Amino acid sequence: MNAETPVRRWRVTVPDAQQPEWFSGWQFKFLMAAFLMYALRDALTGSLRFYLGKVGLSPIWFVPDLMAFVIFGLFVNQMILRNRSLPATLFVANVFVSMGIGIVFMRMSPAIATTAAKAIVPLFVGMAFSGRTPTEHWFPRAFLYVLVVISCIGILLSPHVAFPWIGAEIDTFGVKKVVGKLWWAEGAVRHGGFAGDSTMAAFMTFFPFLLIFRYLPKWLNIATMALIYSALALTTSKTAIGLFWMFAIFYAIFYIFPVKQRFEVLSRAALASYVFVLAPAILIIAFGGVDLTEISRSLFSLGDRINRSWQMPFVHLNNLFPAGILLGCGVGCFSYPMGYSPLASYAVPVDNFYLTTYLFLGFPFVLFMIAQILSVRRVKEEGKLLVIVAINIYTITVACYGPSFATIIVGYTFSDLFLRNHEHWTRRFKRDQSTSAAPRPTPAERETTGVLQGA
């Protein structure tokens, strides 16, 4: 059985010597539990909220959020207090200051402030995977694969089944909320399946697959990709469909016909993909004031973002809080938490992760982004590099706040930034390598190493 055998590739785990000291043991298991619970929750949002409400168990919905706040505490303890990570320290300080600005600017009540904190705390769940990956063991891979299949089935059933959660309202702590919305685009229904929302459903069919495809045999990948595309077509999510075709071409070139320089290509692609962070500014300069529907009606949503969604927040800040253009207007502003505040009438769906986060955190986030770009060379996990490329393209038109699993995946792309100050881990890893260098590795060990590096 060689290193490319699917069974060996699926069951391979990361050796203990390659796992950092932080977030190990029970802490990593707790982190993984929260990660998988968020994935389950977002894949089944509509159905889960509907049936939990029916049986009076709606509070269970918030269990992953409570776990995320615990993980935030662990993150502060491990990354800041113990490992003295400068990027982690500055980012956490930036978030706390922005929470204060948001409370003042949006005149948030304690309940709304908690909602704002709940929006950003999943970032720390993703960031906690510093030097690690959520697919180190076979169980999360199997769990995520099952979720992908279930998500696809839900979307494929949508045109033929009247799901009871579409348009249904639930009452949680006295607040009524629609759990499943029916969206239309160019006269066609945007099906949301079990998630109840087409954008969330599209994300949960494609991105979990990105995390695990390297552990699957080629025939299963091709079959699953056909299933995913069939589902994405029904969501009519242009960003997800475009990203899928980019991935399909990349997979055909670099995985069906393996290329030895694949890691180097991915590393350069991940670094180059940060040019998409500038997409809003470039598109506004190039097409601001232009009616893109004269070119194609399918460009209406992009034109709306260029002429309204990406510009109006700064117009409102200039009128209401000019300092916010530089300092940010606080966590939750111009995102869904703002819709519950006294400034709800000014809320604009920004639909871009980096622009939304800049509005949250202000200019310090720009410095954090520069540090993140410089840290890409520290990423040694091939799958994470691919996710970085995909996220930087996907977030051009999606804010990734709201569906918490999307926020986690974005945080995961930043996670290796916090390795830069971990000299102790580097020394430990080298020591482990040197102590184990004397015995010659067995053929099975050599196969495992090969899988980890490029399967």
TrEMBL record:
Transmembrane segments: 21-40, 60-81, 88-105, 111-130, 142-166, 228-257, 269-293, 314-338, 353-374, 386-414
Residue ranges of the region described as Disordered: 430-455
Coiled-coil ranges (or none): none
Keyword vocabulary terms for this entry: Membrane, Transmembrane, Transmembrane helix
Highest taxon of source: Bacteria
Protein name according to UniProt: Uncharacterized protein
